[in-house]
Amino acid sequence: MVELHRSLAAAAVTLAIAAGAPAAAVELRLAEPFPLRGEPTRVEVLDAEAGVAYELRVTYRPNSRTPRSETLQLAPEGTSAAWIPRDAGLAQLDLVAPGGAAAASLRAAVRFGGFPATGLLVMAVAGLLLFGGAALSMWLLLGETGPRVAEQLEPPST
Amino acid sequence: MSSAPPASDRAQWKSKLGFVLAASGSAIGLGNIVFFSANAYKYGAGAFYLPYLVSLFLVGIPLLIAELGLGGMTQQAFPQSLGRIGGRWGELAGWWGLLNASFITMYYVTILAWVCGMMVGAFGSLWRPATEVDAFAVASMPNPTGFFFAMISSWWVVGLVALVWALNVLLVRRGVATIEAAVKVFVPLMWLFMIVLIVRGLTLPHGEEGVFLLFTPDWEMIRGAEVWQGAMSQIFFSLSLGFGIMTAYASYLPRNADHTNNGLVTACLNCGFEFIAGLAVFSLLFAFAIVPQASTLTMMFFVVPEGIAAMPWGVVLFGLLFFVLLLLAGLSSSISLVEALLSGLIDKFGWSRRRTLLVGGTIGFLGSVAFALPVVVDPEIAATGTLGLSLLDLIDHWAFYHGLLIVGLVECLLIGWKLPVARLREEINRSSRLRLPVAFDWLIKLVIPAGLVAILLQSAWREISDGLYGTGRPFAGADAMAFGCLLFWLLGTILLAWRLSAARPQPAPAPAAAVEQPHG
Fold first, then answer.
1. Per residue in B66-96, is it b (16+ CB within 10 Å) or e — as a string?
2. Is A84 helix (H, G, I), strand (E, B) or coil?
């Protein structure tokens, strides 16, 4: 249950934004709700304050020990940006105002696009090892060695 | 040194299936359902899974077999088993391990009480948009977070703690007989409920992509040492190693039981359960683009319920199913924790089970109440909110993340070098259908201790570089609480372990009084 403090603190920050702070004026929206890895999509910035030089950052695998970030180029009018997701999985888009404060955030789930062969292979091998291993051990345990141990478990008939 | 009842007098499992269900039920707990997914995400999901599998076979299974073999060989509880190997110091280490596990049991029961509270909320109020939390500075919070903080800041949780302790006492009152009866119902139900949740997760739009995320390796990240350390820790905690449970459970098996297969089936079922739990949770995370936090509590009480609340239909049904599943998994683990301590005390002092349960249950209940104290110490919820949750977080950090690893390390060194391990391997091989190779000896003697030392050193370095865990939190008395908890845990367990290991063993009671027989 490591990092409970940091996790709850993060949750509290989210709460403060949701419950106490005024509703964010700026909003991010994806043209494609579940974008595909390697396929271009568009991020729309709604109700952005005119004249403010925002920065749009993408963090792949946010909250993990292996995050990766990139900055997207906003169109000159600041209302949209093109995005080609580099990694599949969870990502977070943050619209950052000058000074570093996040003006808006959006979570996204980037699809793999097709069936990843290595992923399916790992899943199959793991499933086989775990469930096959459990079945084999159970069979060995309850099968031929059974009577010998059962003798120990049962009280003498006399 | 100790005076356990003779092997022939000791209660035994009624069936081998009963033992397997009890051991796997013990290993499968709250951590398997939520912490595995949180940890997997934290270390890169696909990058994590292969190191996790390798750790299972190189660390988890060998140490699990060693713990089972030790219990089978000595026919005694954990402290007495280590005492057989290492004399007074070995027994002291064993008691320290059990007392450390007792701290974990106390807050584990508190968490189960919160699960009960969330289960009640799942009938309706948990799924409302927000909950008013008068105890905190934030008047209203969005659910499920709001419901959770409102619950832990109210005194009715103490009643739930009493209820969960009563259930534990009821389930262990006749030792292996009642435990076996309980797990025969609990464990199949857990699997059934989890399968229902998988089906729901995978049928969500793009739910299958979450599965790809969990299993598709990221070859770049997999090279990182941190990912391997995370995987090894996960395996260690997931299999309930270092608790002394498996040694206690195996001591109720006949001396010639097949510990290799018992270990294999327990480990495979445990990790198989994590496999399917990963399918359910990752499909939910992906379908609703939820970013998890690497913490059992946040995952259990905030993240997964958030996903369930977002489901288009069946919110109450799946919410209830999830919390009932948590309760069953938690109870099958908590009874094993209670039993490990009881067996140690009964073996040492020859007390009756009723008396041991009364003393242990009362102390345990009071400890659990401390972790449930709803007094608000942090009104802004900048850290952990209530006194109980703050104490739980601090003790968890030391007992769970450090204590268990230290016990595992001492256990490996004692078994590996003092016993020595070749003797244990020969003993295990004598009655096992699958023979352990010589490599088993080197895993126990060198590989596992080296891995544990690396993790402990890294943790120690983090305490030095980041500051002692829990200090610097933005509420009054946080530093004193952090130091106080560390001292209380460390000195309390060491002094009491010293006292227990020095106490003269009492003659074993009559078998019927020591461990009541199921139909006796």
1. bbbbbbbbbbbbbbbbbbbbbeeebbbbbbb
2. coil
Smallest Cβ–Cβ distance between B141 and the set A19, A115, A133 belongs to A19
Enter the pTM of the model: 0.84
Compute the distance between CA of residue A63 and CA of residue B285 in angstroms, rounded to an integer. Answer: 13
Bridge partners, residue A108, by sequence: A91
CB contact under 8 A, B216 and A146: no
A145–B265 C-beta distance less than 8 A: no
Look up residue B441 and give its amino acid: D
Q: Which of residues 9-38 of A touch B (CB under 8 A)?
A: 9-12, 15-16, 18-20, 34
Mean pLDDT of B407-436: 91
Q: Say how far apart CA B454 and CA B466 lie, in whole Å.
A: 18
Q: What angle do CA B336, B340, B346 make, to 5 degrees?
A: 135
Q: Do B217 and A119 touch (CB under 8 A)?
A: yes
Which contiguous run of DSSP H or E holds residue A4?
Answer: helix A4-15
Residue B191 has pLDDT above 80, yes or no: yes
Give me the percent of chain B exceeding a pLDDT of 70: 94
d(CA B312, CA A11): 24
- Across the interface, whether the CB atoms of B44 and A131 are under 8 A apart is answered no
B258, A153: Cβ pair inside 8 Å? no
Q: What percent of chain B has pLDDT over 90?
A: 37
Using 50, 70 and 90 to split pLDDT, how confident is the model at B193? confident
The pLDDT of B364-390, averaged and rounded, is 88
Rounded mean pLDDT, B238-262 = 86
CA dihedral sign of residues B390, B391, B394, B396: negative
For helices B478-502 and B78-121, give the axis angle rounded to 10 degrees. 140
Q: A121-125, B2-6, B19-23, B363-367: lowest mean pLDDT where? A: B2-6
From the list B145, B230, B289, the residue facing A15 with the nearest CB is B145
Residues 6+ apart with CB under 8 A from A16: B138
| Residue A70, beta-bridge partner list | A58
Asked if the Cβ–Cβ distance from A134 to B49 is below 8 Å, we say no
Is pLDDT at B452 greater than 50 in this prediction?
Answer: yes
Using a CB–CB cutoff of 8 Å, tell me whether A157 touches chain B. Answer: no
pLDDT score recorded for residue A82: 94
Residue A6, burial from CB neighbour count under 10 angstroms (0-12, 13-18, 19+): middle
ipTM reported for the complex, 2 dp: 0.82
What residues of chain A, 75 to 104, have a C-beta less than 8 Å from chain B? 88-90, 92
Does A133 sit within 8 Å of B268, measured CB to CB?
A: yes
Nearest to B217 among A66, A115, A118 (CB): A118
